[in-house]
Each structure stands twice: as structure tokens, then as C-alpha cells.
Amino acid sequence: MKTDTTAIDIDRGKGDFFYPEAHVRDAGTGLSERTVRYISDVKEDPDWVREFRLRGLKTFLEKPLPTHWASKDLEAIDFAKIRYYLAPGTEPKRSWDEVPDDIKRTFERLGIPEQERKFLAGVEAQFDSEAVYSNIKKAVGEQGVIFVGSTEGLKHYPEIFRKWFGKVIPIADNKFSALNSAVFSGGSFIYVPPGVKVKHPLQAYFRINAENFGQFERTLIIADEGSEVTYMEGCTAPKFNTPTLHSAVVELIALKGAKIQYITVQNWASNVFNLVTKRGLAQENAEVKWIDCNIGSRLTMKYPSVIMKGRKARGEVLSIALANDGQHQDTGAKMIHAADETTSNIVSKSISIGKGRATYRGLVHVPKHLKHCKNNTECDALLINATSRTDTYPAITVRGTGNAVQHEASVSQVSAEQIFYMQQRGLTEAQAMSLSVNGFVNDLVRQFPMEYSVELKRLIELEMEGSVG
Amino acid sequence: MSSVANHEVAKSGSILSGPAEFREFPDWFRDQQRAAWQQFESLPQPTRKDQAWRFANVGLLDLGPFKISSPLSEDDRKNILKYSSGLDHYAARMIFGNDQLIERDVVSDDLKRRGVIFQPLERAIVEHADLFRKYFMSTEAALGSAKFAALHKALVSSGTFLFVPRGVEIEQPIEIFHWLRHDDVSIFPHLLLVTDELAKVTVIEHFRSCNRTAPGFACGVNDLIAGPGAKVTYVCAQNWASNVIALQMNSTTVDHDASAMSLNLHLGSRYSRFESLSRLIGEGGRSDLLAVAVAKHEQEFDARTLQDHVSPHTASDLLYKNALDDRARTIFGGLIRVEPHAHFADAYQKVRNLLLSDDAEANSMPGLEILADNVRCTHGATSGQIEEDQLFYLRSRGIPTKAAQRLLVTGFLDEVIQRLNHSAIATHLHRVIEEKFAA
Predict the structure, then answer these.
(1) Quick one: average pLDDT of A349-354?
(2) For the packed helices A175-183 and A33-43, what is the interaxial angle rounded to 10 degrees?
């Protein structure tokens, strides 16, 4: 496919700036019942959502940090210093012309290109915690597809929203899903009617701007019977000195025969804690596929999951993680087989550069009396420097006969011969290394939508700069 | 305070009442035991939330009912001796019942003259205190059972000390038997094996119960030291009675150019946890970790391993195979750890589960922690069942289903046993596996 690459040039340096904040609604710093009530008041939540938030808060406060298995770095998060809610105080914008100029400039510098806007079916860009701009192309709207912010979804489509909200990821799933349940704002709500195949990917950009401000978006995607949808999210954030927290919850529901593909390119600044819970539910013959790239952040903990609840459901996670100095990419996948003939596939590739640490954590569960379930897991790790670190911690439970589960992992480095060969052909050592790394992830990247794969390759090249020599 | 120490049934005679009277050990050893007891009491009882005990049925670790070992009658001794059959040829042998030494067949005069020491632990503590103190439990139990290692240290009363000096190769295997006699008795088997440079030795331990249903508790620790260039082979044939709770903590230290191979066969017990820690501390060291488990009924086998590459240019290879029937459970928690600067490590880890019933459950956690560069590390875990066409093939040759199944399981497990490259031991292991199938 021929592409004009200059149009989608994403340079991380360009995200490294910010405009003065002009937040009308601010819940202050710290988390208490007052904060949660304040958010509910501003958002005019119905009673059930108010209760939901308060239960979330209670669970969050009760649950300890999961440091018995997770990184002790979590203890560096000062929950009292975080701002849990602020919004520009405007309703989501309908057309591009209505978007304030300085925000427009922010997106300009982020490199959301004109060309891409045409290509994409709709853009839901989140600036801090409210959707600033949302637009669905006419064609998608005519097909009956709902693509709105989660607040709007909750208000205008309560009958669909409430049925599925918090059903795949309950409040008490983990400490951070509880936190999100208490203070969530922003994120997308998507409903695809039966049989509708959304041709173009739906896209949202997320961005953190206010210092010390956690972003707690909540996304709920429902693909009705036989429908298909692809959702993409990409993130960049300006750099701030104090740690910032991003803790999203994403729930996907693929009803009978539906297909959902969810693509993330995560490139937060290197002081962001990115603690995200993502889980999909696949009914009979349905498919949920997560494509997950983690390049930025200080600590990412993210394990996209699929619960295969119906016969012949499929789950897939393709994941790429890149950990540079000061970064810990703790990523992985969970596959819960809950019906016969369900199949799942996990392919994870990680690259550790400098003092970076990449961790794969996986869970595959095949409970008893299921037949003909299959899982395949492959984890490959690449170490660039002598100080780089990689870990693999899978947990696989299989009960009963009639199922096949296999897991394979390897750790390696770029071979000296390869580098030598390329240097001999006139490449510098750094170029050779970069080429090798791109080769390592190439078979995965090829499965990504075109513009993402190009962006990703560029990001990898940027990260590789200065890692050798 | 730990829940175990608070246990209400902790009465006199229970292991939880502690080492009331220390045996006639030297003062320094008694002090060690007292300190270890305090450590045991202060460490918390493991819970399922501990990563090192994930998936394990920790509820089975109630030590309240178990007693300090009781004396044996003359008949007991005779019977134990009679049933202590293992290999046809051995270089030396020790037989223990309820932690009491029943018989010792010493090494040949020639080996003795060349400096081989083969003694009960209590004698070695006195006669070879320097060697003993240097190596006895010198590696921390890092795989989750620190509490039970402390219990072992506090209550160990006998065991085997084997020292093979520089350049001495012992051709025939050395055999050790540990028997559990009486209900609810507890034992604390210990093997301290030290090999000097270029020495070579094979040791096989048999763990057995006199009564096939008697409950009991075995809490063993082995220190296996492979000196520079030494070759150490260790085999454990665990066949406790069906109500026994067993914990075994083995640590192997592999010096430069040495090779250590271990094979653990798990057949008996209600719950058996086996921790194998292999530390590769010198360049050119190699460690092979092998295990075979046949789990039936309600049995739970819990294997935790660590292949710890401390030094550069070291190799390790792990192969664990489980065959699971009925409602049996197995847990494999393994880790390959390549320490900083341990470059050029070559590590492999593979666990394979063969599920023979719909209620069996296999848990696998093959892990990697790589902190060095220029390494080659791979691991794999598979779970599956007997292939229908293989079964069909055998049945079409007139072999009944049950027998065909057994044949295929034996073949599945045989790959591991063959790695030992020791036909006498292989034959013995196959025989005890057959007995389990037949039972």
C-alpha cells in the first residue's frame, strides 16, 4: 500500500509542551466522598451511577496495593496529590470549527493529520477528562452506530449502557478498576447494531494536560450480533515532573458472531503510571482481538483479557512493549475459556533497552468439562543492553482432557553477526540495531492497520536512538 | 505470631510444642536449632496469596496432628530392613525408619582409604564439624518454604553425610531409604552431599511408608554441593503413603565446570511440595533438573524450581512431566533467573502435562527473569491428552484400551527417565511406576 509518510509523522518531542490550563470545573486534589459526590453533581449522574461511584470509592480504599506480586514502584503514587476531575466546562463539541483554537493547536502538534480525519470514520478526542471534540461521519451514523462519550452514552442511551456497564469488569476486580469506578469521566461509548460492519476504524486520542491529574476514562463497546468494529486509541502526553496517573477501564462486549478489534498505541510521558483494566466478553462465535503497543509511561500494568463465554468464541492478544531507561512495561494477557471449542492466541514481543524492564504476565484458564479448547501463547523478548531486564510470568491452568494448551517463550538479543553484516554494508551500528529491532517486531506490526504500523516503526526508531555505541 | 504456633492441639509430643529436649548434639548445633525454632515460629504460615504458594492447597499444611517421631520395635526394624529393596548393586546404603538409623552398609575399604566419608548426620556434626558447618543449609530456602526449612533445621535429628574427595569416582549408586512408621509421625530427612574437585557420585533416595494409608509428615532438606568439575547425580523416588504431607527443599550448588543432574519421581503422598533450587556459581557449570509425576485420586504435587545463573557461561535444562488422573492436581512454578553479569547463560525449561481425566487439573507457571545480556533462554509449557490416533493404533493391534493408555503414559514419562542415562535406576523407576498403575 502506498503511503505518504510525512503526513503521519509523530514526533514525541512535539508532545512536550503545554498550554495554560483554563479549567472551569475542578474537584481539587485528593480523593474523598466529597470528590466523588462533586463529580456526580457536575455530571448530573442518575442515582444508580452515584451509588456505583461510592461503592467504587469504598472498594478502592479497602483494597491494598497489589505489591505482593506487582512492582513496588506503585507505592510512589501519592493518591492525595492527584486531581481526580476537571473539565473545560463545555459540552462535547460537534464540529471541528467549534473546538477552541489552543486545543486545536495541541492536536496539530500531536500530528492528527487532515488526511487521517478523512480516512477515519469518527474522531473522539479527549482533552483532559471531557470529550472536547466528537464527530461521527454521517455514513456511520446512518448505519445506526452510536459513538459518543461515555457521559453522553449514559445520559442518552441508558437502556443499553446500564445493561452492560460494569458487567465485564466489576468494581472490585482490582484496586484500580475500583478507583476508576469511583471517579470515571470521559472515554467512549460505542454501540454497533446487529449485522453492521463498520468499515473504518473509530478513533480516539487521549491526552493528559493538567499537572498531577489522573485520567480515568471509561470505555464501553457493544457489538451486537454479527456486527464488526475496530477501535483505535493512541496517547501522548506532555512531560511533567510529578507522577501522573492514568487508570482506565475498557469493557468490550461481542455478542453472537460479532467481531471487535481494539488497538492501542500507548506513548505516555515517562512519568505516567498507566494502570489499565481491559477486558472483553465474547459470545458464541464472536471474536475479541486486542492489539496493544506500550512504548511510553513510567510503569504500565495492563493485561488485556478475553472471556470466551460462547461456543467457538475466539480471543486474541497481540502485544508489543518497549521499555527504555526508567520504564517498566508490565504487560500481558488473560484468556478465560468458559465454553467448548473456544480458541485463544497470545503473541507478545518485548524489547528492553538500557535499564528498561519488560515483563510479560499471563493467565490462561481452561476449567473442567470443556472440550476442544485451544490456546497458543508465544512470548519473545529482546535484550538490547547488558543492563536491560526482561521477565516472563505466565500461569496456565488446564482441567480435563480434550483441550490443548501450549506456551512458549524465548529471550535473545540481536546477534553480533547480524550487526556486523549490516555494518559491513555501510549502516552505522545504531541503524543496524534499529533495523534488527524492527525486524523482530515486524511480523506483529504487519497485522496492525497501516497508519499505526508506520507510526509504531517511527516510535521504535526514536526509542532506539542512542541505545548503542 | 503464626497461626501454627497458636494451634490449639499443640500439646506435648506434637511437633508444634517444639524441640523440648535437644538430642546430644554439640552446643553450637543446639544453639542453631533453638534459633531456627524461633524463626519457624515467627515466620507466617503461607497463604494462597503468596506468589510462591499460588494455586497450592495451603489448607493441607496443618501440622497440629503430627508428632515427634516415636521409637521402633524390633519387628519394625526387621520389616523395614526386609522391604528396603531398591537397586541390585549399590556402593553403600543407609536405612532410616522414623528418622532412626536402622542399618548402614559402609563404603568399600578402598573408597574409605581414599577419603570418602559416609556417615549419619549426628556423627558428622561431631567428627567433621568444619565441613558440616560450611555447607549445612548454607543456601537460603528461597522458593517459599523458609518457614518449613527453619522447622527442619530445628528438629532434624539424623540424616546422611557424604563427602567425596578430589578425583574420586564412585561407580555404583549410593542408596538411602527413609521410612515412615506409625500414624501421624513426622520425620526430617537430611542429605548433605559434598563433592570435591572432579569427584563423581550418584545418590538415590527412597521415601516410603510402612502402612499405605497412614498419615504422616515429612519435611526434608538436601544440600548438594558439586565442586569444580564434579559430576553429581541425585535421584529421589518419592512413594509416601496416600495420606502423607511432604515438603522437600533441595538446593544444588554447581561450581565451575561441574555438572549436576537431579530427577524427582513423585508417586505417593496426599500433598507433596518439592522445591529445587539450582545455583550455577562457576563458569562452565551445568545443571539438569528432571521430574516425573504420576498423580491420581486427590493427590496434589507442587513443584517449585529456580535455575539461578549467577556466573557467566552456565547452562541449565529443566524437563518436568506430569501424568494426571482422577481429581489430581499438579502445580509447576519454575523460574529461570539470569543474574546481572551472568552473560552467555543458556537456559531451558519445559513442563508437559498429560491429562487423563476430566477432573484433573494442571497448573503451570514457567517464569523467566533475565538481568543479563547475551543469553539464550527459552521455556515452554504444554497441556494435552493422549492422542486418539495413537490409542487407536495400539487398539487395532489388539491391546486393550487400559493397557494401551498405560503404555502411552509410560512412553510419555520415559523420555525424562532416559535422560539419566543409568539403566539400573531407570529400570527401578519404571518398576515403581508400574506398581502405581497396577494399584
Answers:
(1) 93
(2) 50
Same domain, A427 and A411: no
One domain for residues A342 and A465: no
Q: Give me B393's grid cell.
A: 493404533
Mutate to test the interface with B, among A393, A414, A415, A419 (most CBs of B within 10 A): A393
Residues A341, A452, single domain; the answer is no
Per-residue pLDDT tens digits for B19-52:
766 567 899 999 999 999 999 999 999 998 898 9
On whether both A408 and A456 belong to a single domain, the answer is no
**Distance separating alpha carbons of residues A466 and B262, to the nearest angstrom:** 45
Residue A331 in any domain: the answer is: yes
Instruction: With respect to residue A110, please indicate whether it lies within any of the assigned structural domains.
Output: yes
DSSP state at residue A385: S
- Rounded Cα distance between A258 and A194, Å, is 8
Pair A363, A465 in one domain: no
Q: Is any Cβ of chain A less than 8 angstroms from the Cβ of B375?
A: yes
Q: Angle, to 10 degrees, between the axis of helix A47-62 and the axis of helix A175-183?
A: 150
CB A295 within 8 A of CB A463: yes
pLDDT band at B82 (very low <50, low <70, confident <90, very high): very high
Residue of A nearest to B328 (CA): A399
CA distance B321 to B355: 11
pLDDT tens digits for B187-223?
A: 999 999 999 999 999 999 999 999 999 999 999 999 9
ipTM: 0.84
State the amino acid at position B299 in one-letter form: Q
Interface of A with B (CB under 8 A): 68-69, 366, 368-369, 381, 383, 385-413
Number of folded domains that form chain A: 2
Same domain, A36 and A117: yes
Structural domain containing residue A427: 416-469
How many CA atoms does the CB half-sphere of B247 hold within 13 Å? Answer: 23
Considering the domain architecture, whether residues A351 and A464 belong to the same structural domain is answered as no
